[in-house]
Structure formats: C-alpha cells, structure tokens
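Workshop exercise sheet. Pairs work together: one partner reads the sequence aloud, the other fills in the structure field after running the prediction. Swap roles for the next sheet.
Pair: D.N. / O.F.
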Amino acid sequence: MRKRVGCLHAHYSNIEYIENVFSPFDVELIHFVDPGLMYQVMHNENVKKADAQSKVKEQIEWIAQCHVEAILITCTNYIVILQEVQLSISVPIIKIDEPFFEQICTIQKPQIILFSNPATVEGTMERLYHFARDNNKSLDIEIMILNNTFELIMQGRKKEYNQEITKFLNNIIEKEDKVISVAQLSMVEASRQVEKTTSMAIINPLHTLVSSIVNRFDLQKKKQ
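Structure field:
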C-alpha cells in the first residue's frame, strides 16, 4: 500500500533532494515550505521563542490534517524549536537528524561536523550530545562553521553555495585526517561532488534518512 508523507522544509531547494532519493519507492511526498521562520530566527533578534514555537506547532498540525501517515522535518532549526512544543496529533514525526546522529555515534575516530548555518549549530549539537549520552556513546567531535554562506542558498544562489561548500570541504580533507560529515541537507550535493573527486566518504543526513524511513514504514520499490 502506498504511503503518504508530509515534508516540512525551510527552503524549496530541499524538495529536490527528498524527491530524488525516494523516487525508487512507492511513496507520495507532499511538500510544505516556509522560509519565513528561518529568516526570523537568523535575522530578528526580537522574535520571541514562544512565537516561533507557535508557528511550528501550527505548521505541523496543519500538515497532520492532510491525511499523511508521517511527517518528515528536514530543517534542524524546526526540529530544535519543536522539542518544547506540545502537539495534539497522532501522526509520527520523523526528524532528519536522528538517523544522522545514530550513525555519528557509531564512529569511534575523531570527527569533524561542518555547518553552513550558524543558527543551527547550538541546537543540533545539544541534541547530538543528548542522543550520545542516552546511548552511552562518547564522541570526539570538532565543529566547523562556514560563515557567510548560508545566505546564498536562501537567496536561490545554489551554484555559488555549492562552490563554497566544495572548496571548504576540499580544504579540510587536505589538512585533516578525520571522519567528515555535513550537518545540513542543503550541503548534500556539494559533499557528494567532493566524494566523487577525492574518494573520501562524507557522512550526510540524507543517506541515513532513507534507510531509516524505508525500514520503519516498510516502503516498497515501485513496480517496473
């Protein structure tokens, strides 16, 4: 039976990633996009936490009314805000960072996690360390932030954004002998380009997400 999943994104560019990776499976994806909240969190120091929580709650409950069997949240800022929100829905919520955390916690070598959006770092790392503690895992992680770059993707300048990510990743690989991961969905395309040219595996949240959803909902491949 075909599954229907509602997807909440902070930017339109994330739709392509999710559509492509789930295209082999018999699943209907319904996309909801709202860049406004991200702009408020990044640029409006006066935005109240309660207002952001209320907005996310409204969005999630609206999606839940669209006859979906699960809700996928691809924005880490949305996930962090949602932590303290009480929802009155029975639809399961899939947070893109949780399968990613699970893989990160299996690695015993020194690691680097790269962010392009500084606004997501604190909340994401807090959730990661909490996940590690709950699973009795110790982490040796260095955080790197590629500042003044995330605005490019928010402005639709995807090519320039990918170029900046690619250049930064290549620089890390030349200087560091550590496991590298990218923390945001928007960084997946650039990380894959670097993997092809360097043969260096880079962990990204999209790869870990697919196997998690396929197993959890027993998604079937489309009939040829």
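Discussion prompt: Strands lie at 3-9, 27-33, 70-73, 93-95, 111-115, 141-145, 179-182, 202-203. What would you look at next?
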